[in-house]
Structures are given as C-alpha cells and as structure tokens.
Amino acid sequence: MDQLEMKKQAAQAALQFVKPDMIVGVGSGSTVNCFIDALGSMADQIKGAVAASKASEELLCKQGIEVFSANDVSSLDIYVDGADEINPQKMMIKGGGAALTREKIVASLAKNFICIVDSSKQVDVLGSTFPLPVEVIPMARSQVARKLVALGGSPEWRENVITDNGNVILDVHNFNILNPVEMEKELNNVAGVVTNGIFALNAANTVIIGTPDGAKIIK
Ligand code: 5RP
Predict the structure, then answer these.
(1) Residue 1 has pLDDT above 80, yes or no
(2) What is the mean pLDDT of the chain?
(3) Does 3-122+201-218 match 132-195 in CATH topology?
(4) Which terms under GO biological process does the entry name (predicted)?
(5) Among this protein's residues, is 135 annotated catalytic?
(6) Ligand 1 within 6 A of 100 CB?
(7) Strand partners, 155
(8) 2-27 confidence digits (pLDDT tens)
(9) What ligand 1 atom has the least distance to the C-alpha of 197?
C-alpha cells in the first residue's frame, strides 16, 4: 500500500470523532487535505471549522464548510492535524508545511488533539528523520541561526518560503531531541523565534496511524 493510501485511511478513520454541530479544528498538510475531503461528506452536519492555514481554509470553503476565526471560539472539541514525526509519547515534530505557529495556536484550543499520520512518521527519537522547523521574525534570522548552531543544530534557511504570518523558516538538522519538553521551552526563549516545531508541551491525545493493515487508533 502506498503512502497516500495510508494517509487516506488515517484521515477517514478520524471522521468517527466528528459529531453533529461541532466546530472542528483543522490543521494542514497532505494528510489533512485527505481529512478535509472526507469531512466534506459531513458538511451539512457540522457547524464549521477553524483552520490552521490559509490553504486549509480555501479547501474547507470548497467543501461548503464555514470557516470561523480562532478568535470566534473559546474551545474546540477536536483538532485534527498531521505530523512530520511522532514518538511513542505522542509528541511530534511539525511544520513541514510552514504552518506550525497557527497549528500550535489552534491545537491549544482543543480538548482532543488527534494526530493523523501514515506509519512512516513513527520514530523513537524526534529529529532522527526530519529537520526541526523554526519560525523566525525575518530581521532576526541570522542571530537565531547562530544561536541554533551554538545549541548543536545545523540550521538551513527555507528560502522562498514566507509563512502565513509573514515570517521565515529555519530547518534545523542534526538535533537529537532527547528531551522534547525542555528543548521546546528553550527554543521558545530565543529572541526572534516565533514558534518551534516541537509539539511536546501540548502533545497529541489521540493518534491515528494509517498502516498496510488498516488504521490503528491509539488513545
Ligand atoms: C504543516 C504540518 C503538517 O502537518 C506536516 O508537515 C505533515 O504533512 P503531511 O501530512 O503532508 O505529511 O505540520 O505545517
């Protein structure tokens, strides 16, 4: 079974968590795009969605789903998003699509953070297969890069990418993230860093993994 099929399986399985009249938090990326396609079948049953990126917002609108601002809601029952890596503690690296800041904001509104991935995203140690994205205020790019080098990483500027918030992304290679909670806090404290792609302080509550043997749900 190919990776896209496994993504579709995870996305389809996430529909069982969507209940009538909900406002659904929706992340971004290719797995989430599969979820948005599937969610279209429930467009007339849900109240709407809060989207973590402009790209997801457009796709939700195409499915006839009303999109609310994060400012319009005080909480969400569920938030559904993908990940670039996920460890056994349901902590993640995210931001491959440069939407990490809005993803962290919308995820923090949710009672149940549901991570949908294909099995290739499972790792024991975060940072082992995917560089860590860090969203940075443009004027601070060089000084943040130097700080990341001092912390043992090898940052690479994702040129030609500007986030939905008008910032830049540094992808940090060679970080062995043995203590994700501490590393997330430490990077958040670097002046000029808007968000880092470690999602450990607010890890997922539910993980749905698309595998060659079907979708597996871990609560
Ligand atoms: C975007 C993200 C995505 O969830 C992550 O990159 C996974 O993407 P995909 O589902 O395409 O593999 O964090 O910022």
Answers:
(1) no
(2) 97
(3) no
(4) D-ribose metabolic process; pentose-phosphate shunt, non-oxidative branch
(5) no
(6) yes
(7) 172
(8) 999 999 999 999 999 999 999 999 99
(9) 13
- For the chain, the structural domain boundaries read 3-122+201-218, 132-195
Q: Which superfamily does CATH assign the domain made up of 132-195 to?
A: ACT domain (3.30.70.260)
Ligand 1 site, residue 82, Cβ cutoff 6 A? yes
Phi, psi of 132 (to 5 degrees): -85, 115
Strand order of the β-sheet with 23-26 is 67-68, 48-51, 23-26, 76-81, 110-118, 206-211, 214-218
Task: From the candidates 103, 182, 184, 186, give the one annotated as an active-site residue.
Answer: 103
What CATH number does domain 3-122+201-218 carry, 3.40.640.10, 3.30.413.10, 3.90.1150.10, 3.40.50.1360?
3.40.50.1360
**Could you give the 3-state DSSP secondary structure of residue 53?**
coil
- Provide the pLDDT confidence category of residue 210 given band limits of 50, 70 and 90: very high
pLDDT category, 187, cuts 50, 70, 90?
A: very high
The preferred substitution site among 32, 54, 165, 194 for testing ligand 1, maximizing ligand atoms within 8 Å of CB, is 32
Residue 80 Cβ inside 6 Å of ligand 1? The answer reads no
